[in-house]
Amino acid sequence: MGESTDAHEKYGEMAARYADSNPDQRARAEYEWPVVRSLLPDVSGKRVLDAGCGSGYYSAWLAERGAEVVGIDASEEMIAEATDRHGDEATFLVADLREPLDAFEDESFDLVVSQLTLEHVEDWRPPMAEFHRVSKPGGRLVVSCDHPFTTYFVIEHEDPEIGSADATEADYYEVERYDRVWGEGEKRIEIPCYRRSLRGVLGPIFGAGFVLEDLREPRPPETDGPLAYFESHTPRFLVVRARKPSPSSRR
User: Which of 85, 110, 167, 226 is the most exposed place for a label (fewest CB within 10 A)?
Assistant: First the structure.
């Protein structure tokens, strides 16, 4: 499957370190996650698919609130971490979002959540079609991703202190691969990502049959420090909630 296959391999290389540190990262804990949480419906008694669950932290959060959760990730190492840390609270399976989700029957989930995962997928049409297939009528989809504007400006204009993307140019209208750099020295790792336009984000969601319910472009929680850049420039994240229409609501 070419270069686009190696994101999960890179995550696998740092699975334990990621599991220990990611939930507490300020950009995640104070900026992205609160907005995702605000868009989630009541999950008590609901069946939830955590698509791109990583080490399972958010799967466990959903389970603690009464959901029956299945977490999937393409990284075997991440699923091993999730199972070891949260296997008593949720079910974890290795699954690649670029492939059919054959482990799941049609209309088997009330909610699909995918946080900061789909930027590693070049073509969003297959996963969105599968999310729609496995969603019950009236079921919700909540997706967070890098904001399309930021993934353009991070290449062309962003301050070096903030910029962490290895690329030489950006065409906003194309889906393009770039490498995002995390860490320094021996801990430096380059994660392959894909940037796309706002239409490139929303088009596959609409095309799969979902109806948009909400869209958020959150402001950062601080007015100084690294995250403050996104207050005066472009939002770091985009969060979308959509719904699979019930038969009675279709025209």
Answer: 226
Report how far residue 232's alpha carbon sits from residue 136's, in angstroms, rounded to the nearest whole number.
40
The whole-number pLDDT of residue 9 equals 72
Choice between 108 and 3, residue whose per-residue pLDDT is larger: 108
CA 18/CA 182 separation, integer angstroms:
11
Alpha carbon of residue 41 to chain centroid: 17
Q: Which of 131, 114, 123 shows the shortest CA–CA distance to 194?
A: 123
Distance of alpha carbon 156 from alpha carbon 213, whole angstroms: 32
pTM exceeds 0.85: yes
Return the biggest CA–CA distance within the chain: 57
Contact predicate 26/227, CB 8 Å = yes
The 10s digit of each residue's pLDDT in 210-248 is 999 999 999 888 767 777 778 877 888 999 999 999 887
For the chain, counts of helices (H) and of strands (E): 10, 10
Task: Please state, in angstroms and rounded to a whole number, the distance separating the CA atoms of residues 182 and 131.
Answer: 29
Residues 6+ apart with CB under 8 A from 42: none
Distance CA 209, CA 95 (A): 23
The residue written with tokens 């091993």 in the block is: 80
Tokens of 249: 């609501």
pLDDT in tens, 87-102: 999 999 999 999 999 9
Q: What is the pLDDT of residue 250?
A: 55
Would you say the C-alpha torsion 68, 71, 76, 81 has a positive or negative sign?
A: negative
State how far the Cα of 228 lies from the Cα of 241, in Å rounded to an integer. 25
